[in-house]
Amino acid sequence: STAEVTVYVQPQFISPEAVDDYQIMTDTSVGGQTVIDVLANDIAGNDGVRNFTSWTNGSHGSVELITDTDGVEKLRYTRTDADAYTLDSFTYTIADNNPNHPSSTANVTVELAENVDTIEYIVEAMSPFDDQATTTAVTVENQFKLRVSVKDSRTSVAPAEAGVYAGYVDLLYDTEYLQVVPGTLVHSGTFPDIAQGNSGIPGIVDEAGGVQDGVVQSEFSLGSQQMELFTIEVIALAPTLDSEGLPNSTSLQTDPADSSPLHDTLVIAPAPAAIPGLEINYRSFDLQILGGAEGEALLDTNGDGAVTPIDALGVINQLNEFGSSAVAEGETAGLDRSFDVNRDSFVSPLDALEIINYLNEQALDMGEGEGIEIVGQSTIDTTVASNEIAVTEAVQAEVIDEFLRVRENEIGLAYFTGGSQDVVEEDSSDLESTIDELADDVFGQW
User: Fold this and answer.
1) Going by CATH, does the domain composed of 21-111 fall within 2.60.40.60?
2) What share of the chain is helix, strand, coil (3-state, %, to 5)?
3) What is the pTM of this model?
4) Which residues on neighbouring strands pair with residue 255, listed in sequence order?
5) 134-166 pLDDT tens trace
C-alpha cells in the first residue's frame, strides 16, 4: 500500500529577523520596570548571531540594554510618567557579524493597562474536528485553524451603526508549540478588498487583514458583533508544559499592525475615521496543547479529555465516509490523523477496535459492584485487505447500563460496552460489514 506524506519546510534566513513583541507590564507605577526577552522569538541567521545595534525609548518609558541573571542580553522598560495611557511602544534593531547582511527592526508594544470601549482584535482556536466551534485545548499533531476577528465595542455608537471598514493586525505565536501551514491564510468575505498578510516569518502572521467591499456605507456589514478578518491553519508541535512538567498553555497574541496609514483600522460611524493603533484592545488567547503520542490521549479522538464510545463512533463515521485509507496530510481530503489511534498511518476498523477493547477493559475493572452484565455477541472479523494488516483480534460487546457518562458534566447519556477478546483466524475482509458490526457494538441498544 502507499500513503501520501506532506512535509512543510521552514524557510531559511541568511541574516537575523527581528519579530514583534507584546509585553504586559507587571509593575505599572512610575519607575516600574519590566525585563523583556525580545530575542527569544527572533530568527537567527546562518551564523546564529543576533546583536543589538540600536533601540529607542517609548513615549512613556525608557529602554535600556541589560544582561539578565541568565546571562542573556535583554531590554528593560522603565515607566517614566503617570499619564493615563494604556499602550506604549518602542523599536529595536538587530544584526549579525557580517557587515554585508541587512539588519532587522521590530516593534515592541508595552501594555500599561487594557484599552476599553474601543475596537478589539480577537484570536480564537477552532476545533480540529469542527472548524465552526472554538476550543481551548488541542492535541499534538492536530492541524486546526486560528481565527482572528475585529469587533467594534464602542458604547458611543449605536450597535446598528457600529462596524469596522478596514482592519489589519499582527498575530504572534510561539514557534516552539505551533507551526503555520503554508498557503492557508484565508481572508474573510467581509473584508475582501486590499487583502494583505504574510505568514512567511515563523512566529508572526504579519499585517493581515482587508477592507470591506465598495464605498457605499449603507451596503457595509454593520454591527457590534465579531467580524471575522482571516483564518490560518497551524499544527500543534509539542505539549505545553511548565518547568515541572505540569500542564500549561501557550499564548496567542494580537498585535498592532506597523504600516500606517496603509494598514490603519478604520471605523464607519459616526463618520469614517482611523482609530490610533495604541488605542485599540489587542486581545490574547491561551491554548493548551496536550501530549498526543502515548497512552489514553491517542484514544481520545475528539479531544474532549475523556475516552468514551463517542471516540469509537468518530472513527466509524470517518470509515463510513472515506473507507479504510491513509490519513490525510496538509490539504489532502481524507481521514484525519486524530482517528489513526494505533499510529500506523491508516485509519481502519482496527482503530475503532482499540478504543472498544480499552472500554471493555475499563468495564471489567469496574467489578460486580457496579452492576455490569456482559453478554457475548458474535465475533467481529477485522481483517483489512486494503492495507494488508492481518487481524486476529475480535470483540464481544453489549450495552452496559450507566457505564460511562460524558466527561465530568454528567449530561446523562448512558453508553455501552463490555466484553472479552478472543483470537480468531478468519480470512474474510468485508470492510463495510466490519464497520457495521463495530457500529453495532458502539450503539448496542442506545
Assistant:
1) yes
2) 15, 35, 50
3) 0.69
4) 170
5) 999 999 999 999 999 999 999 999 999 999 999
